[in-house]
Amino acid sequence: MNRLAVICAAAASLALSACASDPQPMTSAPAKRMVTPPGGLWEVVEAMAVAPTGTDKSPYLGQKLALYETSAGDPAGRTCAKPVYMGWEAEAASMVGAAAKPGEMRPVMDVTCDGQAFATYMGMADGSLMTRVNNWALTLKRVPPEAMMAKAPEPAPAPEPVKAEPAKAEPAKMAEADKRSIVYLASYKNEQTAQSGWKALAKKSPILAKQEPVITPFDLGKKGKWYRLYGLAVDEAERAAICTQLGKLVDECGSRLRE
């Protein structure tokens, strides 16, 4: 039996995200303790409607979110800069119903933001997480680092940045843009994942959020073609600020070897 297919019987009793309906009262308060978040990026890979939604396609499917000590996200696209993680154990049947073994206990992680409920996740035996937003029961799996932030196999001469032709009508603006220098962010196997990577990074960096991505194809011969993603910085201070804002999301931010 698909584990999501049996969620409906019990999912309404879970306080799973600030976007969900009000949680049902619990008969006894669980013993909570501070826990360390799992870290990394997570993606909603399965979505099952547990109540009428008016659509066959979940808006949360494919949504990616981070679960770090210094930042947290939820499937609705919200972010929290100062999350607090509390954990306890609950019966797996409260999430997956009859698909769980009788008495099987699973870890539960509660996320609060500024003292307010933010999200709740249950860790499953296969390493995935489960949560609920509104009328959708969601399964999340960790995004492999190489899938989002793939590294180039070896250093190579940096490609020349693509220069835009001067605009005749606005020479002043073009001169100002020329003062910015590129900042290496990450490399990807295709342009589509590079665009997805930019969206994830722009959510984390206010500086990048105001820019358009610079994506440059680079041929490594037998290693194949890669796509390098760059941001723009007006000076060294802004370059450092971008990499500080991205934190652990990228491994080689600002690498001169890739610029």
Shape: elongated
Q: What's the end-to-end separation, in Å? A: 51 Å
Relative helix content: 10-25%
Q: What integer value in Å does the Rg equal? A: 22 Å
Mean pLDDT across all residues, rounded? 78
Give the domain tally: 2
Residue share in β-strands:
25-35%
Outline the biggest β-sheet: 8 strands, antiparallel
In short:
The termini are far apart. Helices cover 19% and strands 31% of the residues. It is of the alpha+beta class.
3D architecture notes:
By secondary structure, this protein is of the alpha+beta class. It has two domains: 3-143, no CATH class; 147-258, Alpha-Beta Plaits (2-Layer Sandwich). It has helices spanning 8-11, 93-96, 145-148, 171-178, 191-204, 206-209, 236-246; strands at 33-34, 41-49, 64-66, 72-73, 79-80, 83-91, 105-113, 116-123, 129-133, 136-142, 181-188, 214-219, 225-233. An eight-stranded antiparallel β-sheet has the order 1-6-7-8-9-10-2-3. The longest helix has 14 residues, at 191-204. The termini are far apart.
